[in-house]
Amino acid sequence: MYLSKITYSPSHRAEMVEALTSHQRNLFNEHEMIWQCMPQDQDAERDFLYRRDENSRQPFYYLLSARKPENWPEFLQVETKVFAPKLETGGHYGFSLRANAVVTRKVEKNSKRRIRRDIVEAKVDEYKQRFPNPQDRPPSSMIHHEAGEQWLKKQGEKYGFRPLSLIVSNHQYFAYHKKGNSAQRQFASLDFDGVLEVTEPLVFTEAMYTGRPNKQQSEPVVRGMGRSMAYGCGLMLIKKALR
Q: pLDDT class for 175, splitting at 50, 70, 90?
């Protein structure tokens, strides 16, 4: 596994502006740009996760991939290192995650049909039903935190970790349409930051990073959390936390 940092070259500012404008119009263009950094194999399936970071002076990307990036446009710079986390049972780690977090619910009580809902939208609907008067509902920030905390705790029960502290922020919507398809699609994401305790290192590592190969690939696949993992979601970044 490889962890890379992808930045825009300072000498190609015009290309950076053009790329970011293109990504703003359609997130699929960003997805394709990241694909270009990977070895060109027509039979390969997506074996990477990425995350755009906008907290610095100019955006950059984290890329976790089963294959080493080796081909990228001249307006990008790529720094890569081997990624082989050695996690301890009971270890505390700072984490950062952008996830398309959803819940699956029945359309009607006796129906077999199910739909996926963004966890924030679903939680807002719950409060609307419980408190018809908007003045009786908590602030949106509290609703976001409650929805995110409940979702992340459930993920931890399945994937070998326990959240110890948590900040939920940046509920936002993204639009994209795939090449050759004019239908626009949309999804929402949330940012999760805090400290977690790893309870089952092997389960956590397989669920978040290495996973098991699928039928078409002999190399490990990159897993991740939530949905829309082809579009900048699902990569959990971790580092050893001070105790």
A: confident
- What residue spans of the chain are helical by DSSP H? 13-25, 27-36, 119-130, 140-159, 201-208
- Give the residue from 159, 140, 151, 146 showing the smallest Cα distance to 197: 159
Q: Three-state DSSP class for 134?
A: helix
Please state at what angle helix 140-159 crosses helix 201-208, rounded to 10 degrees.
110
Report DSSP letters for 69-107, one per residue: -----TTEEEEEEE------TT-EEEEEEEEB-EEEEES
Closest CA to 151 of 93, 102, 206, 199: 102
What is the tens place of the pLDDT at every residue in 79-102? Answer: 999 988 889 999 999 999 999 999
CA distances from 202 to 211, 213, 243 (A): 10, 16, 22
Query: Is the per-residue pLDDT at 182 higher than 50?
Result: yes
> Is 155 within 8 Å of 100 (Cβ atoms)?
no
User: Does residue 53 contact residue 62 with C-beta atoms inside 8 Å?
Assistant: yes
Q: What domains can you pick out in the chain, each with its CATH number?
A: 1-84 (3.30.70.1200), 88-200+226-243 (3.30.70.1210)
The whole-angstrom separation of Cα 133 and Cα 135 is 5
**Model pTM score:** 0.86
Q: Which two three-digit tokens encode residue 178?
A: 């795939």
